[in-house]
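Run log, item B.
One chain of 358 residues. Sequence copied directly from the ordering sheet:
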Amino acid sequence: MNKTFHSISYWRKKQSRLESLLAGRTGGGILQFPFVGDYSAAQSGLPIPTLLNDADLNFNHQMKIMEKYGFGWGPYFRYASYGIGCEDAGQELSCLEDHSEPYHNECLIRSEKAAEKFQLPSADNSMTIAVAKSFSRLQADHGLPVTVVLGGIVTLSARICPLDELCRWIILRPDVARKILQISADYTVEVVQLWVRLFGAEKVIPMIFESLTARPILSHTHFEKFIMPCLAETADRLLSMGIEHLFYHIGGDQRDKLSNWSEMPMGNPGICSIGCENDLEQAIACLGKKAIIVGNIHPQCILEGPKQRIRDCCLEILAKGKKAPRGFMLGTGWEILPSTPAANIGIMKEVLEEWVDY
């Protein structure tokens, strides 16, 4: 067993606040949400494949970083099931030296003919899913949210076939595109069922990362008429298991689709992380009545500074976020970059502490 980096009292306090937020009690302070997977991996000093294949190492290094900078959600193993579990049956995870996630240079299919007969192997045969389960056992042992991170339906489909082909099929061969999307939806449900059987539905929070529905990849019309029904049906299937909260990361520029996302089943409440390309006030107006809002400082601001600019960015987002009726968590709109100076990340914690005291 590797050395554990955490303070029991620290995490009890943070999880008590999170549980209150999920129960609908919005008073009592604002948590920081940790998009620090890349940063934690870089700070570990270990080869990325070592972390990807060792749940204990990955968990403990994330815990160390999160506690140091005041984050309150807890570690999550996004490497394991971010739409890639289908591709690695029986293989250890690997990646390029300059790539912080597993890298696959080939999709599973590339033609309409291949799509007609295509099926995914069982999720339980995936090495990534196996490591993810071990990671979630550590989450459960530490009283943290038990999360299973999923590529969104479009994101997973773009791992199965090239994104440009998927978009072409949506227009010219909608029957083929629908089949791929349905395979991705069924796989998503299958993965979550594994977690529900292991940990109980009431403890599991699926984290659905969907950035490929952003413009200019998908138009509002194609999203509304083609993608949204599949996403909504999948969400209903997950909630019917007894899942209480769905976490969505709405990445990329989705300002034209936020009103559509507001119709998505999310649980009570849902949790929505808003990509930094989107306006937080618009997101709160569309989604704030059904979801806790997370966001959405631009990581470039935290990377570059200077200190006053970071403070101003944090204060601007906090001023907007405090208006979210179901609650708010401060965070970046996507991953904090590995080269970000430690002092710059610390400023976020500093500003939030001052905000809470005020």
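Observations after the first pass:
- Strands lie at 31-32, 146-151, 204-210, 247-250, 270-274, 291-297, 328-332.
- The radius of gyration is 19 Å.
Flagged for discussion on Thursday.
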